[in-house]
Amino acid sequence: MTKELEHLFIKILEQNQQKLFRICSVYSKNTEDTKDLLQEVLVHIWKSMPSFEAKSSIETWVYRITLNTCLRFRSNDIKKQKRFISTNNLNDFGLQTEAENEDQREKLVQLRNCINILNKGDKAIISLYLEKLPYKEISNITGLSENNVAVKIKRIKKKLLNCINKTL
Questions:
Q1: pTM higher than 0.85
Q2: 140-167 pLDDT, tens per residue?
Q3: Residue ranges of the alpha helices (H) in the chain?
Q4: 3-state secondary structure at position 145
């Protein structure tokens, strides 16, 4: 691999490591599994670097590899997985970015549990949404139209709110 690709890989890692970790955590059981999955994602990114054709942004390409790797990783265990999600966009679910009180912490736990029961596609979409990716980028990553992404996010939010309200 050329020095240019190595520098690009390091730049990708520096700019996206935490986001990739959070996405991986949606598809893994615990911190150790998340680290293993992130390592697998990084290996796939590294191996794919020479074939990047710049048909999309590098970030979109990286997220696509991440989601595809995550969707293949332990697909039989997805319903049993614990979740760690970014606190971005939590206001959509009546939560603040800092769980300031017991009620907030309980709602955050419920949100994680509710995300846990979503199907693979919905988990992918909501995890990208929680990372504050624009609908257009989610569209590029998932292959859905931008309008379809918007509709799905609205429906997923409704499902999650209903789920949270049922369990509280």
A1: no
A2: 999 999 999 999 999 999 999 888 888 7
A3: 3-26, 31-48, 58-72, 102-116, 120-130, 135-142, 146-167
A4: coil
Percentage above 70 pLDDT, the chain: 80
154 shares its domain with 91: yes
Total domain count, the chain: 2
Return all residues near 164 (Cβ < 8 A) that are at least 6 apart: 93, 94, 107, 110, 111, 114
Question: Which amino acid is residue 166, in one-letter code?
Answer: K
Say yes or no: 62 and 95 in one domain.
Answer: no
Residue 157 is predicted with a pLDDT of: 92
What does the block give as tokens for 40? 């697998």
Domain boundaries, position 42: 1-82
Looking at residue 79, its pLDDT comes to 40
Same domain, 124 and 163: yes
Instruction: Decide which of 21, 53, 82 is a domain's last residue.
Output: 82
Secondary structure (3-state) at 19:
helix
Q: Find out whether 40 and 72 touch, Cβ atoms under 8 Å.
A: no
